[in-house]
Amino acid sequence: MDEHIVILVIAMIVLLYGYISKGLSRLNISGPMVFTGLGLLLSPLGLHITQVEIDAEFVTVIVELALVLVLFADAALLDLKLLRSSWQVPARLLFIGLPITVVLGTAAAWWIFPDEPMTTLLLLALLLTPTDAALGKAVVSDPKVPKWVRSSINVESGLNDGIIFPMLLTVVALILSDTEAGQQQHWIVYVAQQIGVGAIVGTVVGYAGTKLLVWADKRNLAEASYQNLIPIALAVLAFYLAETLSGNGFIAAFFAGLYAGNTYEKTRNHIEDFAESEGELFVLISFFVFGLAFVPLILAYITWEVVLYALLSLTVLRMVPVVLSLIGTELDLSTKLFIAWFGPRGIASILYVLIVVHEIGSMQGFATLYAVVTVTVLLSILAHGLSAQPLANRYARRHRLTFPEASSQDKE
Length: 412
Description:
Elements: H1 2-26, H2 31-42, H3 57-76, H4 80-85, H5 88-112, H6 118-127, H7 137-140, H8 147-176, H9 181-218, H10 229-244, H11 249-261, H12 265-298, H13 304-314, H14 316-325, H15 333-341, H16 347-360, H17 367-398, H18 404-411
Transmembrane segments: 6-21, 33-52, 58-80, 92-113, 158-176, 188-209, 229-260, 281-302, 308-327, 339-357, 369-388
Keywords: Antiport, Cell membrane, Ion transport, Membrane, Transmembrane, Transmembrane helix, Transport
Domain Cation/H+ exchanger transmembrane: 14-393
């Protein structure tokens, strides 16, 4: 019964938000802030209209589908031509900044939570490394901000999920396995299979789906209004086909999107359309479920150590690795700090927690880990939602002379 109440409430919230969304954006109130706040309001912490378990099947399905669509769209909308000409910054963020973030995050966790096993501390660092560009949407969609800056933030957000996920699976497998060599060999094979099968399935689905659309388009077989549904179908097909074949569905969704969006311009346009509507809807619903189900569950486990780590994760543990990774570039300090700040934590961290709960079976022994992730995401929703547009405006004003293309885009 609770699930039906939740669906009805979500429909009403989407309807209400649709009427006032533009007005709220002028006040720097983002969609994730609204949906998370309303989830909290209706949860046992507020009006207690309904209660949802974190491991409820429909919760996992909603967040899972949201991340599949986000990964597919992020990959499809990557401008590979721009990336080829300005690949240095995202490459540094992913291959220098990301490992430093994991190391620093693990070290900070060991300092703040010395009684926790090292595998749990590493797991915590991995859960909070992926970034979510949706929480800084005003930055990545604002034409006043130089395109290469927006692209760098988007590329990092789109790719770090796929890089972190195999590591996450490895650590979870280590936690669940014995220390025998045979067991170790088992999880190595498991992780390799997840990555390899996921990448192959995603590539095949993206290739076949795009070729079929080109074929149908040349023969005028496909109605334009239905072509916006093709990206959703390709993303979901890649995910579930990979999972059925014992691969990683999220990696498959990313590779499918990467191929589909960068080989046929019409497909890319349809993906952009659905990302701004259907994809956005699932993301917002995920944040509502986060406020409704996640936050009430961890309230009893919030301590000053949990809050301290969450604050460090959003600031020092994120920003220092980014600045270090950009040493040697021609970027000024304000640009480095701007990129460093916009590393919000959102959908990926929420879903990865659900995956850990599913794989491990219970929260027992991991309550602190879940509390830290939830508090970090909650603070990120608020901090990055409020700061995105003001900081984008300020950065654009300061760099008009440095990046003249931003000024010309602004005039348009």
